[in-house]
Automatic annotation (TrEMBL):
Keyword annotations from UniProtKB, A to Z: ATP-binding, Nucleotide-binding
Sequence ranges assigned to domain ABC transporter in this UniProt record: 6-235
InterPro entries registered for this protein in UniProt: AAA+_ATPase, ABC_transporter-like_ATP-bd, P-loop_NTPase
Top-level lineage group: Bacteria
SUPFAM superfamilies (alphabetical): P-loop containing nucleoside triphosphate hydrolases
An example molecular function term from Gene Ontology annotations: ATP binding
SMART domains per UniProt: AAA
TM spans (from-to): none
Protein name: ABC transporter ATP-binding protein
First and last residue of the signal peptide: none
Alphabetized PANTHER family for the sequence: ABC TRANSPORTER G FAMILY MEMBER 20 ISOFORM X1 (PTHR43038:SF3), ATP-BINDING CASSETTE, SUB-FAMILY H, MEMBER 1 (PTHR43038)
Length: 248
């Protein structure tokens, strides 16, 4: 189990009679880019919030970075990075102030915050915008800044919830370059998306349909299994099929 960043067994979340996430079971290796795909409302965000320690599961079990999400949620939070659909930035703070604020939240020393801030501004070529409000940045730059802040404290796992929504294809591809750089450093990437073409960028993917994992494998093997030319074709086949009785 030591090489597993995330392990889930029959993880379930119910809201009254509605089952948002239905007995999902999967594992994610350390350093893997794991895509969690599905249409809006498929249960992706609910699953991610449970794994981040932000939402208590109804049943099942899971560990993240070796810690139990039921009993050690605070330890999980200390070892992960998280980027939400809203990019998690404070629009009324400057670029530099956002970096320094999150550095403090993550418990970095003043010296580390100073060094990380300079390093990040240089890497993103935002030195001239350091004193500008985040609200003045184009969406693509907000996205890149938000991701970079999510890994500011060198977490072992980073969760990205629909990180590329609303941006153009070129900016999306540039964002994935940042993901690759993090993965090359050994960071585990868990990313939810409803863009099926982004599945091609992942080492493995799972596809959620109505709260269940209907498929889980590499993009190449899934396309071969479903005799499909693209991941979108795979998804359409799964969406039309009757949900399976259990996870694969």
């Amino acid at each position: 189990m030591s090489n597993k960043a995330i392990v889930t067994r029959n993880l379930t979340k119910k809201f009254g009679d509605f089952i948002a996430t239905n007995a999902i079971t999967f594992e994610v290796d350390q350093g893997e880019i794991f895509g969690f795909l599905g249409a809006n409302g498929a249960g992706k965000t609910t699953a991610m919030r449970m794994l981040c320690g932000l939402l208590k599961p109804s049943s099942g079990e899971a560990t993240v970075a070796g810690f139990d999400i039921f009993t050690q949620a605070e330890k999980v939070k200390q070892r992960i990075g998280y980027m939400s659909q809203k990019f998690s930035l404070y629009e009324d703070l400057t670029v530099k102030e956002n970096i320094r604020f999150y550095g403090g939240i993550y418990g970095l020393t003043n010296t580390a915050i100073k060094n990380k801030t300079a390093e990040l501004l240089h890497k993103l070529q935002l030195e001239k915008e350091a004193a500008h409000l985040v609200s003045s940045l184009p969406l693509g730059w907000k996205q890149k800044l938000s991701f970079s802040i999510a890994v500011l404290h060198d977490p072992s796992i980073v969760f990205l919830d629909e990180p590329t929504g609303g941006v153009d294809p070129i900016t999306r591809r540039q964002f994935w370059d940042l993901i690759y750089e993090a993965a090359d450093r050994g960071v585990t990437i868990f990313v939810t998306t409803h863009y099926m073409d982004e599945a091609e960028y992942c080492n493995r993917i799972s596809i959620m349909v109505d709260g269940r994992i209907q498929a889980l494998d590499t993009p190449g093997r899934l396309k071969e299994q479903y005799r499909a030319e693209s991941m979108n074709d795979v998804f359409l086949q799964l969406a039309r099929a009757k949900p399976a009785a259990a996870n694969p």
